[in-house]
Amino acid sequence: MNKIKIIFAGSSIYSTYFLETLLKSNKVSIIAILTQSDKPKGRKKEKISTPVKKFALKEKLNVLTPNSLKNPKIIEKIKSLKSDLIFIASYAKIIPPEIIKLPKLGIVCFHPSLLPKYRGSTPIQSAILNNEAETGYTIFLVDEKVDHGQILFQQKVVVNDHDDNHSLTEKLFRLGSNHTPSFLSDYANRTIQPIPQNHSQATFTKILSRNDGYIDISKESPKNIYQKFKAYYPWPGIWTNWDGKRLKITTLRYEDNKIIVDKVQLEGKKEMNLEEFKNGYRNFDLF
Fold it and tell me: Which PANTHER family match (predicted)?
């Protein structure tokens, strides 16, 4: 069989796991990359490329960074590439109907939850917040609704007690990327039959903001604070208010149903060990 011609769409560092694996495969050919455009960051507002763009340019791949996928020129460009399919892993853009219909095998997407559970942008954080014993990933066909399309493959993954957002994301994306080349080959050979989602069982996640990391030491249980700490690591992190300022808890442990805080960072100050912080702020009495 001829190699599957793929347009790869992704933006995050985790997306590069899939791209690297696919490039090593003799089953597929990456004909173009879709990734988000450069964004200004930091005090100097220097434009920063996505990890996928940096990786792709090193590999001398054809990179497209459209601000809008509804731009007729972009749609025509994607059409001209005549891909067999588009594969998405953490691209963070909605695909319009005009593009969905272009590849002959459709658009295939990796989502880090067991759909229809935890549709949306924060499935891993939601699984940790809800203290799930297991989660997983889904590979599905994209349709015109978010995370709504027919399921092609799912794999369950155990959530360990020490897993945080970063480690669980790493685990899911590594596992998913390892299986993707052979899976796509099976799908192209029509040995995989799409299965509709049970939409009555769908649950939805929300977009996080910095304010979601707020904790109320006096009202929230130690277990709830610990789950928030894991779910929101490394961003937005967890924080509370003290002396009129935001106090971020940067390192903690959960032992014998108690929270043990190791490091904190007061707004506008550097990170400090808790004991060092208490020595500098004698009136501190939160924990």
Answer: METHIONYL-TRNA FORMYLTRANSFERASE, METHIONYL-TRNA FORMYLTRANSFERASE, MITOCHONDRIAL
Contact 265/240 with Cβ under 8 angstroms? no
The CATH number given to whatever domain includes residue 92 is: 3.40.50.170
Per-residue pLDDT for 163 more than 90?
yes
Question: Region 63-86: what's the mean pLDDT?
Answer: 97
> CB neighbours (10 Å) of residue 160?
11
Identify the pLDDT of residue 258.
95
| CA–CA separation, 85 and 180 (whole Å) | 13
Tell me, yes or no, whether 78 and 55 share the same domain.
Answer: yes
Helices of type H across 27-84: 51-58, 72-81
**Is 191 inside any structural domain?**
yes
- The CATH number linked to 236 is 3.10.25.10
Q: Give the whole-angstrom CA distance, residue 83 versus residue 52.
A: 19
98 and 179 assigned to the same domain: yes
Task: Tell me the binding residues.
Answer: 113-116
Report the 10 Å Cβ neighbour count for 127.
Answer: 27
Of residues 103, 110, 102, 126, the one with CA closest to residue 22: 110
Q: Indicate whether 1 pLDDT > 80.
A: no
In the annotated binding site for (6S)-5,6,7,8-tetrahydrofolate, the residues are 113-116
Q: What is the pLDDT of residues 165-221, one digit of tens each?
A: 999 999 999 999 999 999 999 999 999 999 999 999 999 999 999 999 999 999 999
Which H or E element spans position 21? helix 15-24
Buried-exposed string 167-198: b where 16+ CB fall within 10 A, e elsewhere: bbbebbbebbbeebbebbbebbeeebeeeebe
pTM of the predicted structure, to 2 decimals: 0.95
